[in-house]
Structures are given as structure tokens and as C-alpha cells.
Amino acid sequence: MTDTIFITGIVIHARHGVMEHETEVGQRFVIDLELYTDLSESSRTDRLSDTVSYSNVVATATSAFKNTNYKLLERAAGAVADDILATFQRVRAVKVTVHKPHAPIAAIFEDVGVVLTRSRHPLPPARS
């Protein structure tokens, strides 16, 4: 059984990107997280110590995302996933979505981004 904790719409100003002005000025990014964990104990005990603190997850994700300026969203999202799995032993897997709504693309678009899912153990291969 896997339960999910989700946190959506974390807004962070950071300096990720390939273009020079992106690293100088920075821009707004939005992060959504899904943490896959077993919540059966905390659903019975009502103790924070038996679950994953949302506040601590946001602090970890924000730090991982802002501490280094990456060229690619893929790497920035990977840093968030890696830090969450390293910090929160109760989390079995994490899905990180990073939105870059103001990406320098010569088109009219609503949003662009990446979605990464990382787990402690490799997921079984997809069957045909």
C-alpha cells in the first residue's frame, strides 16, 4: 500500500536556464510534489513524528532548488528529488513537477516544465 502526501504551487524565484539573462535576473518557477509513503501509522496515532512534515519538505525542496544555478530544469528537479529521498527516510518515492511559465520560447504558451519520479528502489520494467 502506498499513500500520498502532495504539496502544490510552491513558488520560487531562481536563476536556472541556458540563456545569460535567465542566470542574471532569474525568474519564477512553480514546484509540485507528490511523496509516496505509508501513512497507516500516522493515520492511527495522530503524531507528527509518525509522518513527514510538510514544512520540512518545503524547506528541503526550496533549498535544493535554489542553492545551485542549473542550466536544465531536469537537473534542478533531480536535485529536489535527490534531497527529499536523502532527507526523509519514510518517503519511498517522490514525483517532482517543475513549471517554468516564463521560459524564453518564441511562442505563446501557458506552461512548460518537467516531471520526474524517483524512488529508493528501481521500479520494475514496463511490460509490453
TrEMBL record:
Catalytic activities: 7,8-dihydroneopterin = 6-hydroxymethyl-7,8-dihydropterin + glycolaldehyde
Residues of the signal peptide: none
Origin superkingdom: Bacteria
Residue span(s) of domain Dihydroneopterin aldolase/epimerase: 5-118
Record-level Gene Ontology MF annotations: dihydroneopterin aldolase activity
Known EC number: 4.1.2.25
Pfam families listed in its UniProt record: FolB
SMART domains cross-referenced by the UniProt entry: FolB (SM00905)
The entry's keywords: Folate biosynthesis, Lyase
Gene3D superfamilies attached to this UniProt entry: 3.30.1130.10
Protein's pathway: Cofactor biosynthesis; tetrahydrofolate biosynthesis; 2-amino-4-hydroxy-6-hydroxymethyl-7,8-dihydropteridine diphosphate from 7,8-dihydroneopterin triphosphate: step 3/4
Family from the record: Belongs to the DHNA family.
Summary of the function given for this chain in its UniProt record: Catalyzes the conversion of 7,8-dihydroneopterin to 6-hydroxymethyl-7,8-dihydropterin.
Protein name, as recorded: 7,8-dihydroneopterin aldolase
Gene: folB
